Amino acid sequence: MGDWAKKTRGKLYYFGRWGRIVDGRMERLPGDGWREALDEYLRVRDDLYAGRTPRPASEQMTLADLCSHFPAGKQRLVESGEIVDRTFRDYLDVCRRLVEHFGRHRPVTDLAPADFDSLRASLVFGGAVHAALQRFFQEQLVGRSVPLTELMEVFHQYWQAETEARTVQYAKGEDARALKERARSMLQAFLASP
Questions:
Q1: Together in a domain, 70 and 32
Q2: 110: which of 62, 71, 145, 188 lies 20 to 30 Å off by Cα?
Q3: Which range marks the domain in which residue 100 is found?
Q4: CB atoms inside a 10 Å sphere around CB 184
Q5: Mode of pairing for the β-strands spanning 25-28 and 11-17
């Protein structure tokens, strides 16, 4: 009595207390915790309907957990010759990018397909910068210097080709102009370096 509860698949589950019996009468607890109970229910609902035992909140797998366990299994594949070292390094790079973009404490179960749209924008940005640098090194091989305007043109062409057919969802506080300015400053710093 006095518990927030929900029957799921024929079984009653409890999500916190809202009251207690005092002198034979039910009394509501101050700050009855209905929001916390609802949050807990929403956290475990899918597991309950699927017939699984929900993990305690503290045991939710985070992106950092996933990205620390995943490479261990892949390292064994490198050692057995099933994948090459370059593939393994690519896996590590993907893990690093995921953690940088979503945060190390983000629960894996919290990620949805729409979350990856903003990640895609950062990958397109990196690809566009890479294309500009690739042009720089190709021209260096034939003894030609490349001005910043030409590198920015390569960046812009790559960016346009990758983003014109799809809507890009930018991370909070970013837009296309801000990313292009960041690319300009990165490429400028690259050209100025010895």
A1: no
A2: 71
A3: 63-110
A4: 15
A5: unpaired
